[in-house]
Amino acid sequence: MNIHEFLIPPAESARRKGPHDRIVMSSRVRLARNIRDAAFPGWAKKPERVRILDQIRPAVETLPEMRGAFSESMDNLSTLDKQILVERHLISREHAAKSAGSGLVLNRDESLCFMINEEDHLRMQALRPGLQLKQAWMAIDQADSVLEKRLEYAFSQDVGYLTACPTNLGTGIRVSAMLHLPGLVLAEQINPIIQSVNKLGLAVRGLYGEGTEALGNVFQVSNQMTLGEAESAIVERLDKVLSQIIEHEENARGTLLEKKPKMVYNHIGRAYGILANAHSISSKETMNLLSLMRLGMDLGLFPGSDRSLTDELFILTQPAHLQRQYSEKLSAEERDLLRADMVREHLKAVSRPISKPSGSEGGKLDKPEKQ
């Protein structure tokens, strides 16, 4: 099966809705599991990895939720295929580097994804649009409970599930959300927020996780401890922290519009001007400018336009997705030219931003609707 025929089209993916999705772009809960009495993938020889793959993959494929899933060995996917999956946040950069003895099983609506022989034998994750940590946890917990009856996990009565990295020891859970926080960045409040979150034992990372920068004002917030705390308690704690961050972001946006409206309009107007008229633009600059346009959509500065347009361009303008549209190998300079052409074409129907949000009074932001 061709992965590109299987994946949800970017335009459709960008239209998916969820609670608080103007700020929380997606929620994810990941579990790390290993097979008892087998070497971790990083230490295992190729025949051992292949044996583990052949053991885990059928067990995952027969889950009711995985009916009609995409299932493939990583060595049968091209480098471009893998990079597209990374850009969609469906697999990790580490898994993209894997080949024989590693595999992927992805369900139809891209809400459940199983990476086999990444850092651990099995890393399963549930994804949801918006703030839906509890729903994601329930989905992956259900799948895990079924798999635990079919696979013999490496488990210790003293410390819990055994994992390749000590930071995942215990529950093996990683709960995270991807947040769009341009208000806090523009208000220069993002660093205090990050410091406060870190003090609570949570990690704040960039767009693609650990070791990456926050392109497009997008940040990932996740738990760091997995030992000594129940999974439901970790989910609940992160959910509460995210609700506070959402409130801070909404307040930052409202305060900026009230006290520095011209600064906000200037940033958003310049972003639109460059994106709608540039003839060469890098991936990084595109992401940062699309972030400001997305903020403008949320603030009502682009009447008649929907946030899904910027979310679609977030996906389409990334290097591998851009490369996929053209059969020949593209240099970075050629990608920058084609990216600019694509963005200009998509923004043809978008009028320049108005200088006052629709439905606002004196530059004040409408109170956000409850979700």
From TrEMBL:
The keyword Metal-binding does not apply. GO terms for molecular function: ATP binding; creatine kinase activity; protein arginine kinase activity. Appears to be allosterically activated by the binding of pArg-containing polypeptides to the pArg-binding pocket localized in the C-terminal domain of McsB. PROSITE patterns: PHOSPHAGEN_KINASE, PHOSPHAGEN_KINASE_C. Transmembrane segments: none annotated. It comes from the Bacteria. Its EC number is 2.7.14.1. ATP binds at residues 26-30, 89, 123, 174-178, 205-210. InterPro entries: Arg_Kinase (IPR023660), ATP-guanido_PTrfase (IPR000749), ATP-guanido_PTrfase_AS (IPR022415), ATP-guanido_PTrfase_cat (IPR022414), Gln_synth/guanido_kin_cat_dom (IPR014746). PANTHER family: ARGININE KINASE 1-RELATED (PTHR11547:SF38), ARGININE OR CREATINE KINASE (PTHR11547). This is Protein-arginine kinase. It comes from Pedosphaera parvula (strain Ellin514).
